């Protein structure tokens, strides 16, 4: 059946290996290779490149995989709808999320999902805004946590307004301040968060016409805090990213209104299982706010 071949090619594309794909799917390597070769024969062109570093899809292969994922998603939706009709919630929800969401929200939400909908399987994939956007566009996840300033190609459901705060060490002359004005720190060395795609902090500086003195750019928020702790500069980070700071580091509000709006983005109509996840997510956030 073609659906099985589509699933095999999809897994090969994810793990870049026939051997790994075969192991995950519970098949022999020869069965995986045969399925891919059968698709190539059926379509009349190559779908993959085989090389020493692994397996990658050709440009034509990527185009076909995108369409195959639509078929696989439609089949998943069909099965979930049938399960819902007989009163059983089943299926898989594939979620792209940033590290702060996986740390602060998902453990509690997964516990609730496991309790209320044990037939629904949650798959998590962590990345930055840019990576999550790509996964959504390519159909690799059903929904993803992004900020409002991300791509306009998705439906966006706002969930939380997360303030941006300035973090300083006890050795900084700013430590005893109650708030920080962006214009006053224009010349102060900044440890800038480095994300692919939309950068909430840089967007804030640009919004107010401030040109920061960037000393370092780092991806890992813990590393940024460590740099600040050693008085190598100050930084600005979302509140959710700095819930636990060393005793010698303080988070201060900004004079200018500065925040990111986190939400859930989708590209396609949500499956029944994904709708259950969204319901639980909203309920949990409402309870957290009260």
Automatic annotation (TrEMBL):
Keywords: DNA-binding, Transcription, Transcription regulation. GO terms for molecular function: DNA binding; DNA-binding transcription factor activity. GO terms for cellular component: cytosol. InterPro entries: HTH-type_LysR_regulators (IPR050950), LysR_HTH_N (IPR000847), LysR_subst-bd (IPR005119), WH-like_DNA-bd_sf (IPR036388), WH_DNA-bd_sf (IPR036390). The keyword Transcription regulation applies. It comes from Solibacillus isronensis B3W22. Belongs to the LysR transcriptional regulatory family. PROSITE patterns: HTH_LYSR (PS50931). Pfam families: HTH_1, LysR_substrate. The gene is cmpR_1. CDD domains: PBP2_LTTR_substrate. Residues 1-58 form the HTH lysR-type domain. Gene3D superfamilies: 3.40.190.290, Winged helix-like DNA-binding domain superfamily/Winged helix DNA-binding domain. This is HTH-type transcriptional activator CmpR.
